[in-house]
């Protein structure tokens, strides 16, 4: 007997499963964010989707690649690469000079406000570059995109999607105090055990820590609310109706979060949040010849891989000397990605490189430790390959990332501003010689590898799901339809309290009335 | 160059991935729960695990099967099958006679308290049957189980796991007001948009609904707290230290929840919660000959599948007549699973069966509608095959399940107590003839089929994960280490309020002091 239903579904799932030739639009962010989303793009192209990246003429990292399948739609903005570079450098420097601590958080906020103002100026020019370009918008409309993948650190991807009438998905590492995830995405963040981002706290908090965490959430909420407030009117104007940045962000179908439980402390989330941390990780490839020989020459001692990421290129001479002299004292060979002046104290065991194949080095069996600024991409490569870390965090989520790795026993931190050669040396000796660090790094690696579906496959699955179903409305919580006081049941609690108060009032009044009436009557009776 | 790390991991994952020959212990629950967990057991056996079921001598449904690979460890209890049957029947009847509504919830609670007392008496005898059987406990210890899969509706699975020193996993549909998931599992349930179980509310609530929901949560919490309280001392005694039922339940490594987002309204959850609803669903097999011919004879009109589940066998004659006369008026052929007296009004289009292959019928292309009591297993088969439903809910989660399907536009409900033939007839005509019901059922079906990993594979993955890693501690939220007031940050809020009050007091005192001192001086000066 022919089972039509099943045949139909099999065919449908087969057809759906492939989602052949879909059109995907990308709204990217600079720096390491771009490196991460590039991996998703490559996978989408492999699955025969047509991917178009919206990039401004002033973009720094987001530039056309050699891949002919990847289209770039370049729009004009009234600034050049230098300005983006200037804002990024200013951001990094201001953060490093004002690293937030419980006592300095207010000054940090005031200083960052200036930098973020510059950042918003650029962001707005980027938005205008697309939204006010009628010709481009019409071209995009004609291209019939099925989904837009947006990094919300640069606002406007969501507006473009709404204007094109297509669903959008976010790729996000974090927002200050997780305000966006919390208020716009409606994820609960209990301050009692979920450490606020940028607080450098863990999920094991003392009473004082919990006070810090509580204040941290509210301060960062305030920071986000005040600094991002001006976008509300921009969004309202662009969409032609009164709205807010947060309301619009809340329309994201899926939130691809660039972490996983090998890195995060367990916390509540919603079904439209997918944790795809480490999606860029892959097995190591063989090293270039010269580098491979240097690594092999390390013998039993192995190697240390050292990079401070793409944002920091040079250090002061003094700082570079402090670092180089520490490195010179370990038996391991060191591969240091550094483009600054060659430090005077550089040891024979250390080689400087303009660029290193970080993933291939960390995946090499001789890798003993990773000195890292603590960017999420790098940390995930270390987790993937099970390499313990020495963290030298500088800005953004880096101190927090290292705090996570410290709490999980896979890293030691040194303070870039105050460290001596001895500090760095001791940190390196600790992670290399104390077996617990390697064991913990390997434990995280095992957790990372032992998932039902690989992070990259999950990210692509949900992008394709949104394309197949024109959204993922079945995962969207009804919390989005409530006001903040309804969400917290304040109206219900208020009403119930009012009821209780009314009952108490009525009962008391009745009692008093009865007492007065019958009390007096009683007295009268007694007198009679 | 040989990349030892990668080779090592590939080998490790390969070895881990299979988790060959693990020993799994099952703590099952009666009725449809057993049917569901049986599917997981079969899959575990397929993957060459050794599975042992702990079943009492008084078990009703949990009886040795023909599968020689499945071991049963039967322990003696001082009651027979009749007593279990009696308690279940009493439970069903009491619920049906006192179906909870906003006005009758208190009476419902009082009546249910009696039934639940009987249920706890049996549960305790079951627990004693294992825990006080030294020989059995020693035998279990010798068997070196690696994980225990427990249905927590019968308590004690967790104690047995802890006494054997092995991790345990729950398979759970719900607990009253989700109290267990909320208080023991630490999942947040915002009452503003997450409908309390048994409330029959959806995620779209008016102000009045939200008041009902708020009260529902607290009443059911109270119900759970008072009725299950007596287990605290049993657990403390069994584990030899002061503990509570809730604290012990909180030690579950993974919670396999028997629903998914095709059925649930989106709500927060934690990373150790896995939604595996519909894991028992599978493509339809060909029907037995006689049945197949009857189904084929329905022509274009198709068939209606009708069952009230395994718990309800007979109806009153009057009720059966009402139902049969409605069924007689539809053009579809009806397959009714019914073991009671043949109703006088039975139409020629309706056939009674002692048992029907429900899944194969629902998966048949001629299936037009499913009349169901609304058990989760049956609903999931209807979702899987995309068949719209007429719900005749009776007890437990059934009214709630049908409320979910109604809200998603895939079902119409009729009240078993008050329904007339016309009610049932209209309901059937609606779901069969209004295309939206079929469309919505198909939409749910598409959502169900379009998951990165099938529910059964995910359930087995996490059981094997716990076996491979001896737990899943990386998914356990730190909320478990906090007291209730710490969890809600009440101590922090109290402290901060005290600080603010102190500052206000000091400032006011200073102002008053200054005013008195300098005010008087001023006056004095004026006089001078």
TrEMBL record, chains A, B:
Record-linked InterPro entries: UDP-glycosyltransferase (IPR050271), UDP_glucos_trans (IPR002213), UDP_glycos_trans_CS (IPR035595)
Regions crossing the membrane: 492-515
Keywords, sorted A to Z: Glycosyltransferase, Membrane, Signal, Transferase, Transmembrane, Transmembrane helix
GO CC annotations on file: membrane
Pfam families given in the database record: UDPGT
EC number, as in UniProt: 2.4.1.17
PANTHER family: EG:EG0003.4 PROTEIN-RELATED, UDP-GLUCURONOSYLTRANSFERASE 2A1
Record protein name field: UDP-glucuronosyltransferase
